[in-house]
């Protein structure tokens, strides 16, 4: 039996993108929460919770991009031209955020400026990721395997709202992470921030879902007319259950549960996205088979990935194990 390499590569890239969203999401979320905590000690603690791991989190963004280039070159040559502006701005945001991580700890007179760079870079990167996702969902015009749309097709009310949805998601992840990694007054403040944040996030998820179903006939057919609603229905039900679980965990002062359930919401949202567009990789034009490279190219790249991916997963797991535990004010930093 012949292995379906496009499906395997779609799973690898999907896994890489999800792990990136899961890991880099909470440290981008810390940047989004920064403006609400102006105390120098609180900001130091917030940064120190992710200082040892933030750069390793971005490995999976590289994995997803490189895998896309090798396994689905048509996607690379259409998705990028359709979203040059948001993707370039995303990279700019990540650069500013990375520079702020390394330089603010050593700065004296300019530390406030680096704080602004950290906040702005985090917000810009998160917003642009959401806009790109919205652009992908609303569809990209492709003719003869080439982008045939306008350079600003990515800009629409739907894509901008998706950008705000990603901002809310990352801020929620950041709250959950800081509740787990801090204690005392900062942890209490994070609980207070997370309650309204989760409520607004649920509303944003509902609006995006309804907007997608009403605005995209292919998604509406996939969910309601294909006969698979019974299989798909657990996804929105579990989202609501996860939000209820977060509220309960916050009232009960659980420390790990809010973060775990925030990750569950991300996973369920990602699952809903895959359900909505499968088997298209660029809706509504290209399936994963139509966009794939030659079998020999995919097989060659798969051999390298099978060797490298476990190493990446192991060293990322090890860094979280080494730096586990609470972070408190006065602890030595990792800059």
What can you tell me about this protein's structure?
This is Cytochrome bd-I ubiquinol oxidase subunit 2 apoprotein. This protein is mostly helical and 335 residues long. Helix content is 75%, strand content 3%. It contains 14 helices and four strands. The strands form two sheets. A two-stranded antiparallel ribbon has the order 1-2. Strands 3-4 form a two-stranded antiparallel sheet. Strand 3 and strand 4 (286-287) form a beta hairpin. Helix 4 crosses helix 5 and helix 9 runs antiparallel to helix 12 (234-251). The longest helix has 32 residues, at 184-215. The model has no long low-confidence stretch (mean pLDDT 84).
Summarize this, please?
One of its GO terms (biological process) is aerobic electron transport chain. This protein has 335 residues and is an all-alpha fold.
């Amino acid at each position: 039996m012949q292995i379906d390499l496009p499906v395997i590569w779609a799973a690898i890239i999907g896994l890489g993108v999800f792990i990136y969203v899961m890991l880099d999401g909470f440290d981008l979320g810390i940047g989004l929460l920064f403006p609400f905590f102006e105390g120098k000690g609180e900001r130091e603690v917030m940064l120190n919770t992710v200082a040892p791991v933030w750069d390793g989190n971005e490995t999976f963004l590289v994995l997803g991009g490189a895998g896309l280039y090798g396994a689905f070159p048509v996607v690379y040559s259409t998705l990028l031209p359709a979203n040059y502006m948001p993707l370039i701005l995303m990279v700019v945001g990540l650069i500013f955020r990375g520079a702020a991580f390394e330089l603010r700890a050593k700065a004296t007179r300019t530390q406030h400026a680096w704080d602004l760079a950290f906040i702005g870079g985090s917000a810009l990167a998160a917003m642009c990721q959401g806009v790109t996702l919205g652009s992908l969902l609303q569809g990209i015009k492709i003719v003869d395997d080439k982008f045939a749309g306008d350079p600003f097709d990515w800009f629409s009310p739907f894509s901008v709202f998706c950008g705000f949805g990603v901002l809310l998601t990352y801020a929620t992840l950041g709250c959950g992470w800081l509740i787990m990694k801090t204690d005392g007054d900062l942890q209490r403040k994070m609980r207070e921030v997370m309650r309204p944040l989760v409520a607004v996030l649920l509303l944003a998820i509902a609006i995006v879902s309804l907007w997608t179903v009403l605005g995209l006939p292919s998604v509406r057919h996939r969910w309601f007319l294909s006969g698979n609603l019974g299989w798909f229905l657990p996804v929105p039900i579990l989202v609501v259950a996860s939000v209820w679980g977060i509220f309960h965990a916050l009232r009960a002062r659980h420390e790990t549960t809010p973060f775990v359930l925030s990750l569950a919401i991300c996973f369920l949202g990602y699952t809903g996205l895959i359900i909505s567009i499968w088997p298209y990789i660029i809706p509504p034009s290209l399936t994963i088979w139509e966009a794939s490279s030659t079998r020999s190219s995919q097989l060659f790249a798969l051999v390298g990935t099978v060797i490298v991916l476990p190493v990446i997963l192991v060293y990322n797991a090890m860094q979280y194990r080494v730096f586990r535990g609470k972070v408190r004010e006065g602890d030595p930093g990792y800059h």
